[in-house]
Request: fold
Amino acid sequence: MVARNREQLIHIAARLFLSKGFKYTSIDDVVEQSGVSRSNLYYHFASKEELLYAVVDFWGNRYESALEVSLGQRELGAQLRIESFIQLLQKEIEDRGNKGNCPFIAMYEQSPAEAEAVHQRIYQFFACLHTYITELLAQGIASGEFRNKVSPEQSAYLFVSSLEGSLMLAETMDDISIVRTTSNAFFSLLRQ
Reply:
């Protein structure tokens, strides 16, 4: 029950932070929406900023695990493995009604300047994402899936930047297909 309450608080806070914004979500909002008592919330999280860290850490662990699974599926091509990660992102955004494009960017922009642990966890996620994409692109080059004059590391930065931009555009234009279009264009460039 204790672990379930903690998870419930994190899931509700994640949804509220993305839909209303961290600054505009009160502890009372989280308590009301979660059905967990205020004292129970403070049992798990000493502050709203600590709850924010738990939300960011939840997303980081979730997406890093998905990337690890993609990396390990060597029977599939690199593009298919990267696309499986993109499909996870698309599904989650669609489930949120095309709101809350990239939770890491949204939480970074909304978090207090002194929330160093939150900023560090977000940095850790993007470093991990870059490393995994670099490795997948290197595997794609080694297998002949992508042309061999491509720098995996530089291309991974381009991929992450394009992905984040496409997520922002998808929310702004209320069109999740922008993410797929951008991904397809990126992979086309790797083959030319």
